[in-house]
């Protein structure tokens, strides 16, 4: 793990890239930021988390770092020890994690257990949507009370690096590290309700667009060439034909622009989701 500090004093703000080694945009955005020799008003940490996986171009070496939090310093598994070390670095920080996907070209934010602090951060990121993953948050960074993630675009693309860099700067402006006003795009808020699993051995083709409504009765995918239709309306999230062996993606509900959101309504939903949370496997993020 690389931990770079800018500014003087003890940082209370952190940016974390390369939690997944096959998503290099965060590490590249951090390097671009450090190379720009930034003038900062308060200190921040820039963390390149899973260097070993990044060097090998793989998601993880022994286990998924973003399912291993809070980690274990005594574990036999590299990423479980790394998760513990990462926790020590970010535990007193407001943090932005940077990821990328195989399913969507634009940047969107991931949150869980949304609170005022997280909402203030994501409201000022240049993203097209904010997705609440509370229902499947187990062991992920977004569970932490001061942590939000972005998905910056397609894995390995130059656009993902640009999007990651823009989000990094906006986050550092919102947190007072960089001078200037961050954007205020008022992105839409989507709440994941459930994963859609694949039947083993069958071929899937996703026909819709992520973040675009699928109506009740509408065909949104094929399974071995046969139509798969929606029982209820939903908005697809991280949905792709072959991004994941087990999951097609997620259903979500759209709650309107972030600014219109009542946090108490989200809290109630999160509590209900937590009560019947399971060990669902999770697609990319
Ligand atoms: Zn990731």
From TrEMBL:
Gene Ontology CC, one term: cytosol
Gene3D superfamilies recorded: Zn peptidases
Keywords: Hydrolase, Metal-binding, Zinc
Pfam families: AstE_AspA_cat (PF24827)
GO MF annotation list: hydrolase activity, acting on ester bonds; metal ion binding
Residues annotated as domain Succinylglutamate desuccinylase/Aspartoacylase catalytic: 10-84
Cofactor(s) demanded: Zn(2+)
Recorded superkingdom: Archaea
PANTHER family given in the database record: ASPARTOACYLASE (PTHR15162), SUCCINYLGLUTAMATE DESUCCINYLASE (PTHR15162:SF7)
Protein name per UniProt: Succinylglutamate desuccinylase
